[in-house]
Amino acid sequence: MSALMVNEHVDFLSFKELLDVTDGNLASHISALEKLDYIAVKKEFVGKKTKTSYVVTNLGRKEFNYHLNALEKLVKQNRK
Q1: What gap in Å lies between CA 9 and CA 16, rounded to an integer?
Q2: How crowded is residue 66: how many other Cβ atoms within 10 Å of its Cβ?
Q3: Cα Rg of the chain, angstroms
Q4: How many domains does the chain have?
Q5: Is the dihedral of CA 33, 39, 43, 49 positive or negative?
Q6: Contact call for residues 4 and 54 (beta carbons, < 8 A)
Q7: Which residues are CB-neighbours of 16 under 8 A, at least 6 positions away?
Q8: SS3 of 31, please?
Q9: Tens-of-pLDDT digits for all 80 residues of the chain?
Q10: Using an 8 Å Cβ cutoff, are 54 and 42 in contact?
Q11: Where in the chain does DSSP place strands (E)?
């Protein structure tokens, strides 16, 4: 999610390389995020090949920010 928060879109291969995961592992995580409507699939043709990219949805952005705020709150509480 953090990669999508700072990029307009991220393609499958870039995700795979960035996260150093298998195709199957990445696909299952992407599927879970898509089911929650946190990300959307963007398919386009590059030449004759299909390129699959992902974009963060408004809901995904909102929930990710909520998650970050919760983490910041937790860190602040542990500093006391």
Answers
A1: 14
A2: 10
A3: 15
A4: 1
A5: negative
A6: yes
A7: 22, 23, 26
A8: helix
A9: 999 999 999 999 999 999 999 999 999 999 999 999 999 999 988 888 888 999 999 999 999 999 999 999 999 888 86
A10: yes
A11: 10-11, 39-46, 49-56
> For 2, which DSSP code?
H
Domain with residue 46: its CATH number is: 1.10.10.10
User: With a threshold of 0.85, does the pTM exceed it?
Assistant: no
| Amino acid in position 43 | K
Q: What are phi and psi of 36, to 5 degrees?
A: -80, -5
Angle at 20 between CA 24 and CA 10, to 5 degrees: 80
